[in-house]
Structures are given as structure tokens and as C-alpha cells.
């Protein structure tokens, strides 16, 4: 049927079907208001078509996705977030050398880091889910909190109190708090490292694009489980060899390697690489 047709940018645009004069006039006014150009009848002149085509060709390209923008600045071992992660993981070495930290202290520290990871994962869920985070957030906290509680009991019983339960008194709350109080420099360093990665990578590089709440809720478990497998291996090695200092350095080294691999893999996966 009758329809409206006009040339724009060298292309013929058609609108509507069986338009009457009133609908045609209304559509014409809307087009003129939106484009700032008047619609005239007749064939377009050749120079008008050339000018319109050139304007479309010369128009600036739309902003590429964040992942495409970051191809030239892809997170690598030399990136600030990766270097900060290494530095934060080296703080326990200073603690062992100058503050007398033991393997049990490092075990508790890395458990606390898992809590930090969970905290920022909750922030990521809020960014991705927005209002849905009001329901997903408490569910994640309950499930992850239960996981953390069981894991802390395992670490405390096996590495802090010891197999015979004689190394750490009766496990009063003040005593447990004292474990974390002397670890605050390393815990602060890890908190700063994860906070920087959250703001610089997750928000700054827009890694939240294309993510779902379901994906984000399950993300920290894989990293934490493998990280603690490394720690448990180191703890078992210490119990067998009886050389805590060397084993402590081995555990820290393994932790750094695993953290770096996980950090870079996560950045590459979220950038679509």
C-alpha cells in the first residue's frame, strides 16, 4: 500500500503501510524534528547524495567495548594489580623473618584472605544484579559463610591447636582474635590488593559486562578451594618434615604462583581473551 519513502545517507528509507495524508504529515514532522532537516518532494540532486554519503563515511566510529579497548593494555605480570598482588603475598615473608610468624599464622591469614575475596564478590554481585542482589546477596553470604566456618575449624584444629589440641589453649574468643590482631599488616596488604583489582579491573575495565549473578556467586569457590589445597599440602609437608621455615617459604611461593595464574586467567576470561 501507500507508504512514506525518503533518502537518507545515500539509502532509501521506507516507513509504514497504507498511510493516509494525516499519518504522512505526522511522520514527516517527526522526521524533520529529529533530523533538523526539511523534507522536500522530488529526486535528490547528485551532489546532495555525495555529501550525505561522505557525512556517513566520515562519522566517528562508536566507542569499542571495554575489552577491545584494553587489548593493548591487557593485564599481565607487570600490570599494577598483578604487582600489588605479589607484594601483598610477600608480606608474610617479612612476618616470618622479623615477627616470628609460623605456618599456622599464614594458614589463618590466607583463610582471612578468603573472607576478603568473599566480601568483594558480594560487591560484584551487587554491581551485576542490582536489585536482584537483595535476594542473591544474603543467599551467598549464608552459603559462603558456612563454607568459611567449616574451613576455619579445620585450619584451627589441625594447624593452630595441633593434632593433640595442646598448642593453642582452650580456643577462647580473645585468643582467636589475637591470631588475627598480629596478622593485620599482611591482611591490610591483601585487602588493598583485592580492593585495587575490584576498582581497576572489575569496575574500571568493566569486567561486569556479560556476567550473571549465578556466574559471580560461584566464582570465588574454585580459586579458594585450589588455594587451600596448596596450603594443606604445605601444612602436611611441615608436619612430616618438621622444618617449618623452609616449608613456610615453599607455601608462600606456591601461593604466589597460584594467585598470579588465577588472577591473569580471570582477567583474560572476563576480557573475552
Can you describe this structure?
The chain has ten helices and two strands. By secondary structure, it is mainly alpha-helical. It folds into two domains: 4-58, no CATH class; 66-270, no CATH class. Helix 4 runs antiparallel to helix 8 (184-203), helix 5 (103-129) runs antiparallel to helix 9 (213-241) and helix 9 packs antiparallel against helix 10 (244-270). It is elongated, with a radius of gyration of 30 Å. The protein starts with a strand and ends with a helix. Residues 54-72 have low confidence and may be disordered.
| Count of domains | 2
Largest sheet: 2 strands, antiparallel
Oligomer: single chain
Could you list the spans in which at least 5 consecutive residues all have pLDDT below 50? 54-72
Strand order of the largest sheet: 1-2
In round numbers, the mean pLDDT is 76
The sequence of SSEs as H and E is EEHHHHHHHHHH
Give the termini distance in whole angstroms.
50 Å
Shape call: elongated
Q: What is the helical fraction, as a range of percent?
A: 55-70%
Q: Provide the β-strand percentage band.
A: under 5%
Number of continuous helical runs? 10
Structural class by helix and strand composition: mainly alpha
Rg, nearest Å: 30 Å
**Total E-strand runs:** 2
What would you say about this model in short?
The chain is mainly alpha-helical and 273 residues long. The protein has two domains: 55 residues, no CATH class; 205 residues, no CATH class.
Amino acid at each position: 500500500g501507500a507508504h512514506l519513502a525518503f533518502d537518507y545517507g545515500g539509502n532509501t528509507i521506507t516507513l509504514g503501510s497504507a498511510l493516509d495524508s494525516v499519518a504522512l504529515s505526522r511522520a514527516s514532522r517527526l522526521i524533520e524534528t529529529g533530523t533538523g532537516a526539511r523534507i522536500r518532494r522530488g529526486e535528490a540532486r547528485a551532489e546532495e547524495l555525495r555529501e550525505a554519503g561522505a557525512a556517513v563515511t566520515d562519522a566517528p566510529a562508536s566507542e569499542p567495548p571495554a575489552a577491545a579497548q584494553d587489548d593493548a593494555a591487557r593485564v599481565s605480570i607487570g600490570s599494577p594489580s598483578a604487582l600489588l598482588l605479589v607484594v601483598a603475598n610477600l608480606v608474610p615473608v617479612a612476618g616470618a623473618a622479623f615477627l616470628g610468624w609460623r605456618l599456622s599464622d599464614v594458614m589463618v591469614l590466607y583463610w582471612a584472605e578468603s573472607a576478603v575475596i568473599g566480601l568483594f564478590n558480594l560487591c560484584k554481585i551487587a554491581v551485576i544484579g542490582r536489585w536482584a542482589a537483595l535476594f542473591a546477596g544474603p543467599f551467598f553470604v549464608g552459603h559462603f559463610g558456612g563454607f568459611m566456618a567449616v574451613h576455619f575449624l579445620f585450619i584451627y584444629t589441625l594447624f593452630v591447636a595441633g593434632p593433640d589440641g595442646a598448642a593453642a589453649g582452650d580456643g577462647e574468643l580473645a585468643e582467636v582474635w589475637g591470631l588475627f590482631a598480629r596478622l593485620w599488616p599482611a591482611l591490610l596488604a591483601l585487602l588493598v590488593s583485592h580492593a585495587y583489582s575490584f576498582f581497576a579491573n572489575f569496575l574500571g575495565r568493566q569486567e561486569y559486562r556479560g556476567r550473571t549473578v549465578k556466574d559471580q556467586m560461584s566464582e570465588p569457590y574454585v580459586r579458594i578451594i585450589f588455594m587451600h589445597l596448596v596450603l594443606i599440602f604445605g601444612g602436611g609437608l611441615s608436619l612430616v618434615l618438621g622444618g617449618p621455615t623452609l616449608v613456610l617459604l615453599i607455601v608462600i611461593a606456591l601461593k604466589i604462583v597460584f594467585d598470579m595464574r588465577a588472577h591473569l586467567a580471570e582477567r583474560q576470561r572476563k576480557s573475552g581473551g
